[in-house]
Amino acid sequence: MLTADVAVVGGGPAGVAAAITLARAGRDVVLFDKARFPRDKCCGDGLTTGALRRYERLGLRPDAVASWQPVTETWIRSPSGRAVRFPLPETGGVFAAVARRSDLDAAFVDVARAAGVKVYDGHGVTDVAQRHDLVELEVDGVGSVVSRYAVAADGMWSPLRKKLGVTDEPGYLGEWHALRQYFADVDPAAAHQLWVWFDADLLPGYAWSFPLPGGRANVGFGIHRSAGRPTHEMKAQWADVLQRPHVRAVLGPDARPEAPTKAWPIPARIGATQLTAGRVLFVGDAARATDTLTGEGIGQALETGELAADAVIAGGPHRPSLVADSYRRHVLAGMGADDRLAASLSRSLRHRKGVRAAVRVAGANDWTRRNFVRWMFEDYPRAVLATPHRWQRRMFHGSGAYLPDQPSTHR
Questions:
Q1: Most exposed among 55, 83, 119, 221, judged by the fewest C-beta atoms under 10 Å?
Q2: Same structural domain for residues 230 and 322?
Q3: Bridge partners of residue 69, in order along the sequence
């Protein structure tokens, strides 16, 4: 029987962030994932400023990620056809980047290994049971694993949630649905710039093109399920999106798909979901942690993983109620407030007039463009003004990530 202080189920950003944080605090940590790394993951591959700062603090280095592509320029097109350029700072660190999840996640798992986490990739968890003072997992190829706590970072469909009876309403499929495809031989506009298209028929969703090295791009679109469009029609809709003149103009005449389309559901309800079950803490997609406004989830996944680890470290092995209460309280005090604000703003983007007005105001002058893009890329938390406990010195003027010889000013 394998024993540990904490067992982490899932080797994505949330699980690895929790594992690294725990291992650095001296805890004995094991991590399981049913896939072997590197493995593909359906995602837009975009990294916000907030996500980059967390990756930096947790030890991930850009030179370890083969497809790492910094971004300094974003273009947003409103339903009226107006395209506005939003420049990110070109000095002072990295404020946005794109990296294939197959490369990013594998490199992050290597950071966990170096931190002392025992990683068992290719070993899926098949069952879970809780005693009064421990969690017992059954793991393919490993057998029984006993730990004081478990961190469930096992995704949207979270087998641990189901095994523990922590269910959403019947038929729950998330708040967003997205589709992406990798393209090669794209024009310079797609190879170096990040594009977001708010087409009227996608609202409050959008289409995107995110640059990758070697003349490649991650291209896709996301829609809200509440908009009433059946998701099985997404592939047909995708063919139409790709033929739109403004999309073709960015991708260029020689752009060609180099991989099939992949679609995935996105859960975004962290303020209204169960976050713990006894000694099990749910993080990342298992905690429904995606941003309601954009569908972005990497930064949120990292944050939940760190918060779960902090709660375990502070609470100790014998106070599971304290650990669970601490985790829920910290998530809801920060991310819960961000989620409520994002949901409110999302409602204003359901109609073309709202999007047109937002793009017009954001692009009014150099000051609005600079500050809007930093807010969009989560340079600071969405609802920071409403949550004084997160206020910091220079919180609106902080450096980006990976700035040599200068410590980050953000937690």
A1: 83
A2: no
A3: 98
Helix (H) / strand (E) element for 399: namely none
Q: Is 241:200 a contact under the CB 8 Å cutoff?
A: no
Model confidence over 62-110: pLDDT tens digits?
A: 999 999 999 999 999 999 999 999 999 888 999 999 999 999 999 999 9
What distance in Å separates the CA atoms of residue 390 and residue 303, rounded to the nearest whole number?
13
Q: Is the same domain home to 199 and 309?
A: no
Q: Which residues pair with 32 in a beta bridge?
A: 9, 120
Range of the domain at 254: 176-266
Coil/strand/helix, residue 348: helix
Pairing of β 2-9 and β 29-33: parallel
- Enumerate the H helices of 187-263 as residue ranges: 188-192, 234-242, 245-251
Longest dimension (CA), the chain: 63
Q: Are residues 180 and 35 in the same domain?
A: no
Residues 128-156: tens digit of each pLDDT: 999 889 999 999 999 999 999 999 999 99
Q: Which pTM does this prediction carry?
A: 0.95
User: How far out from the chain centre does Cα 392 lie?
Assistant: 23
Burial 54-89 (b: 16+ CB within 10 A, else e): bbbbbebebeebebbbbbbbbbbbbbeeebbebebb
Residues 158 and 193 in one domain: no
